[in-house]
Amino acid sequence: MSTLIAIGFKPIKQKPMTLVTKANVTCNHGVEQDFFGRPGKRQVTVMSKEQWQTVCAELNTMLPWTTRRANLLVEGLSFTPAHVGKILQIGELKLEITGETDPCKKMEIAHAGLEAALRPDWRGGVTCRVLNDAEINTGDSVLLS
């Protein structure tokens, strides 16, 4: 079984992530208060705890998951290209997986080698479009269909 274990958003561009235990996610704003939550293919980003741990092991360090700057961290699920177009349901929330969250130069600035470590096997997570408005909570079950 997969579970939502963390929620974060960026209220201001280039500023630290804000962590919460619950959040409203809407079709108009993504994770409410997130700077990047406007409608589109990249409204919400989701990352796998297991894939993040692989990245950290490769770098021989334990970085906080927020270094990646994803909105949601799930446990018990790893993302692949085959998941594009699938529905990720978190509690009552439905997200359409639209693609890979490509690592950028900001990752290299955050930690040497991080950008390259995120590139293989979709380790950086996925981008999603919000399909319905819902409140999510850490501990919510996560289903992929």
From TrEMBL:
Q: Which SUPFAM superfamilies match?
A: PK beta-barrel domain-like
Highest taxon listed in the record's lineage: Bacteria
The MOSC domain sits at 18-145
- Entries under Gene3D superfamilies matching the protein: PK beta-barrel domain-like
Pfam family example for this protein?
A: MOSC
UniProt cross-references to PROSITE patterns, sorted A to Z: MOSC (PS51340)
Name the record gives this protein: MOSC domain-containing protein
InterPro entries to which the protein is assigned, alphabetical: MoCF_Sase_C, MOSC_domain, Pyrv_Knase-like_insert_dom_sf
